[in-house]
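Whether sequence alone determines local backbone shape is best considered at the level of individual chains. When preparing material for the folding task, we compiled for one chain both its residues and its backbone structure tokens. The sequence in question and its structure tokens are set out directly beneath this paragraph.
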Amino acid sequence: MLTRTLKGFLWIVCLGAMLPLHAQVEDSRTEALEPGQLTSLLAKAKTYVGRPYRFGGSTPKGFDCSGFVRFVFGSVGIDLHRSSGDQAKQGDPIDVSKILPGDLLFFSTRGMRKGISHVAIYLGEGRFIHASNWGGPGKRCVRLGELATSYFSDRLVSVRRVIAPPPDTEAP
């Protein structure tokens, strides 16, 4: 019997072929990283868990979702646009079934007609990290999330790759 989380993740993978890619390719290129830089990027992102959410924030004093992603990627020399909608035009579109750690996840949290409104960094094994403005005390902060939750799986719009995968890396 599969766990609820695994079932949800498998459902997302199956949904991948139907996933709409609303973002147009504006800057379709990936950046190569030195060995170990991806691990450093993901580790750095995790060091900010618990930092407060701040609308328009792009520093450790407070982040919004796109400010957080831009800050973390900037730490390894990758310049991303400032807004989640503009970040969704960078890199290469990826089918959700080929997702790798370091890929960017884009969500429409205000309804599909309003476009992309949230971005997160995929960590692997169905988990991601993001600056969340949802929830009560202690929840409006940088935190981990699960793709398999219905809230996020229902709102995932696209996946983009801005970091070239290391040679011989295959998606699950």
About this structure: Residues 26-161 form a domain with the endopeptidase fold (from Nostoc punctiforme) fold (CATH 3.90.1720.10). The first strand starts at residue 58 and ends at 59. The two ends are 20 Å apart (CA to CA).
